[in-house]
Each structure stands twice: as C-alpha cells, then as structure tokens.
Amino acid sequence: MNLKIGFIGLGNMGAPMAINLAKGGNEVFGFDADNSINLREVTMMSSIPSLLEEVAVVFTMLPSGLIVKDIITEFIDNFNTNSILIDCSTIDVKTTKELSETLHKNHEIYMLDAPVSGGVQGARSGELTFMVGGNRDVFEKVKFLFTYMGNRAVYCGKTGSGQSAKICNNMILGVTMIATCESFALADKLGLDREAMFEVVSTSSGCSWSMNSYCPAPGIGPKAPSDNNYVPGFSSDLMLKDLLLSQDAACETQANTPMGDLATRLYKEFVENSNGSGLDFSAIIKTFEI
Q: What is the DSSP code (8-state) at residue 49?
C-alpha cells in the first residue's frame, strides 16, 4: 500500500529518510525551513499548511522539542482530521506527552513518538532502528512505513516510551564511548599497542558497540569517523543534547544516574570549551590523549 506522506525537516537525517520513503513507491511531500533544499525524489512544498492539506501521515525530524512544539502549535488547525503524526525527533518525554494529548483530545490527530538510532549512515542505507511509543493500533497501521527507512521498528509502549528508550540508549552510548576512550588512554600510558588492545577487548567481556563498530582510535577496527578526522556521523553536540535529556528525565523521575551525569558534564566541557562542537562524538578521545 502506497501513501501520500508529508515529511517536515529535511536535514542530514530527514532528507535520506524522505528519499527512502519515496523510493518505496510513496508520494512524499517535503518541507524544510531552508528553502535551498531540493530533493529530486520529493515534491517540495513552499509551506507547512500546503503540505498538510495533501497528506494524512506526516513525519517530522527536527532539532529540538521546542521546534517540534512550535510547529505543531502553529499549524495544528491545518492537519486533516484523523491524521497520524510520526515524530522521529529526539525530544523530551514531557513535551511528547503534552503534544500527543493536545493533538488527540482537541483535533482527533494521532501521534507516535519514533526516534531513531543508526545515524546519518543508517538513514542513507535504510538501516535505522525506530523506537516507537503511542497507540498500538496506530503503530500497527503504519509500521510498514518504517520498513522503507529501517530494518527494525520496536513498539516500546504508551506515548513517550519511544523517547524514553532513545534517551536510555544514548545515555549508555555516551558512557561507553567515554569508557572506551579512557581505556585507550590507559593502554597508551601502559605501553600497550592499540591494535592488540582492540583485538583483546573486541572479543572479550569489555566489548561494546563503541569499541567494536565505532572505534574512537583511528585506523583500528571497521571504518569509522575517527578515520576521517572525526567528521560527524553523530556529532558531539547531539550527544550532549541527548545526555541532557537523559539527565532532565532522571531529575524528574528521581532516578540515580551518576555515570550519566558525569558523561553529560564531560561532553558539555568538550563541546563548549574544548573545540568539540561540530566533531563526531567519538572525538572526545582527544580529551584523554594528554
């Protein structure tokens, strides 16, 4: 079944996702605040209202919860009744729940929170993982759409559960990347060859995605941003954003996350005071190479 689909936010992640939806045979209408963006596979629209009047399913991939909230609030009356909004942005759980309730209660619009993991490369190759929260029946109705953009869509539970899963996942990612970087720093001081350490750790109990698939040390393991001067696949700025979301959630729920807190502070220092902004999040290894 092919649909008319709207896609708002055509940046590094949104553009390849929209293109993959179109390659699946769907008619995709796109909008981005940067009007210089023009995707051959997508019908570009000059405004959000003109996009919304064409479709019953809308994807969003936007930088922050504030932007998501502003767009939905401003254009809520332009949605068609019984539309489905699938927000793939990574935003705070509280905003997600508030927007979902407003959309459904007052405007008969269903919202799924569906943040992703896999980065820009996963978006381009159609190998993203979607973490989805919201009404189960709505998820079942549209889950085939996720197959055009990814290889897995996990239903996580009620509204906000997708965002919850994403920030928990990325808190783990931030912590393990720092631990991986620290291990290379210690190995260097001990005179241990980096290749030898990788061979041991990647096949032992200390293995992790940060070590095995995304090694922060250049020239070791599968090709990663460290082999390309840390041109970002997932930037340090975005890692900091997600870690801050995790700590906001921890504060609201009184969860004890000392490692998450420390990782947040280390990435904040790296981004704001150590020239880490604009680099891949694995570039934090530079902090430990002293």
A: H
